[in-house]
Amino acid sequence: MKVLTYLVSIYYFRKMKKIIFLGISLIILVSIFNYSTNKNPEINYEGFNIVAPGVLRTPDERFKNLVDYPFKPNYLKIGDTRIHYLDEGPKDGKVIYLLHGQPTWSYLFRKVIPTLTKAGYRVVAPDMVGFGKSDKYLSIDDYSHQMHVDKMTQLIIELNLQDVTAHLHDWGGLVGFRVIADEPERFTRIIASNTSLIAPGPGFFRNIMTYISYPLFKLAIWLQGPATWEEFIGGGSFTGWIRYSRYTDNIDVGGVMQTLGNVNGLERAGYEAPYPNATYKAGAQIFPYLIPSELRKNEKAYRDVLEKWQKPFLIANSDNDPVTSNNPRLVEMLRRIPSAQEITIEGPGHFIQEEAGQEYGKLIIDFINGNPKPFKIERVVPDLNL
Predict the structure, then answer these.
(1) Alpha-carbon torsion 248, 355, 126, 306, what sign?
(2) Which of 105, 189, 271, 336 can bridge 131 by disulfide, Cβ–Cβ 3.0-4.6 Å?
(3) Is 47 within the bounds of a domain?
(4) In this structure, are 21 and 133 located in the same domain?
């Protein structure tokens, strides 16, 4: 028996040596490529609007005469950054909170907001750090999933928003669901539009994988290398989008919105307004790369709050969205929320709010009233020469 025990011990010791060796090798590889990819290039910052160490602010003149964006700016200082947000409609109205994703800002909701305010709702739509009229960090290293969650949570707290209907789009879902998990008593309803909260799900093995999945993801992206704009558009894969946005010298924000949002030339200018040059785009550039960075915290949000959520929750995806239609797992994750309803909007692509703003605003109101109805639109090819 002792001999058998000894042999088993030797066997597992050798196995552990291999695992330890592989783990050390992985750490070394990750360290090497982190160093090689996270170095910020030497830039002459003369003439840049630097308002604090490592913080940029887009000059106000960049936002003059934007098409269909007559809204009054509001600002709140949170930590080392000034956050911009819209606050439209009656101050005593029920609150609808609109959270954008990447590479958009509150400009995305300009066609939705009038429908909501005319119906008597108060609409609050912030710009996350790195987007729109909010401040922007110079370095991609200053951006993290947790940073965005902390800033947006603090904004909700300082504005003391209550009885909130949250509308989350794109990356607004990954940030917004975590905000809701931090302050669940403030929220009454949730609408998730072409988004999700990525988490491993229950299970011991999946829990263990959360410790190494992000380093492995970064290593895989590094090994695949940069993707060109043509490769991203032609391939349509999500990893292609990550590889393009992470490694490009100047992410084409306007091109993304024309390709996926069906915007015209004047509207394209609205999305490009926050970025006088490529340095201001660090937040937009790194956003997709951060998607799997906090799987453990996302899983905790599900287990502690979202899996217990009994208040109204609507999944409102569009049938031409390349993100959710090509990745059904994203919707499956949201089905962990027990009160989930689902509708499909026929016609629009990823940015429903651009292609069907008024209709989408009515959908939000119908959802608040307990009767959300899907709708259908015909896609119109925009005039890129406007």
Answers:
(1) negative
(2) 105
(3) no
(4) no
Query: How many CB atoms sit inside 10 A of residue 181's CB?
Result: 22
| Arithmetic mean of pLDDT, 134-160 | 97
The residues pairing with 341 across neighbouring beta strands, listed in sequence order, are 314
167 counts as catalytic: no
Active site residue 100: no
What distance in Å separates the CA atoms of residue 92 and residue 94, rounded to the nearest whole number?
A: 7
In a domain, 42, yes or no: no
Q: Rounded to a whole number, what is the distance in angstroms from the first to the last CA of the chain?
A: 84
More confidently predicted of 45 and 337: 337
Reference 142, options 277, 32, 273, 287; nearest CA is 287
Q: Based on the fold, state whether residues 99 and 236 are members of the same structural domain.
A: yes
Give per-residue pLDDT as tens, 184-201.
Answer: 999 999 999 999 999 998
Is it the case that residue 378 has pLDDT exceeding 90?
no
State pTM to two decimals: 0.88
DSSP state of 169: E
Task: Given the residues 84, 100, 145, 350, select the one marked as catalytic.
Answer: 350
Question: 84 an active-site residue?
Answer: no
Asked whether residue 237 falls in the same domain as residue 340, the answer is: yes
Catalytic entry in 127, 182, 252, 321: 321
**Shared domain check, 215 and 82:** yes
For residue 49, is it within any domain? no
The whole domain housing 25 covers 1-32
What is the rounded distance in angstroms from the CA atom of residue 371 to the CA atom of residue 374?
10
Do 10 and 135 belong together in one domain?
no
Catalytic residue among 127, 135, 170, 182: 170
Distance CA 285, CA 279 (A): 10
Place of tokens 């995305």: 108
- Looking at the structure, tell me whether residues 175 and 261 fall in a common domain: yes
Give SS3 for 316. Answer: strand
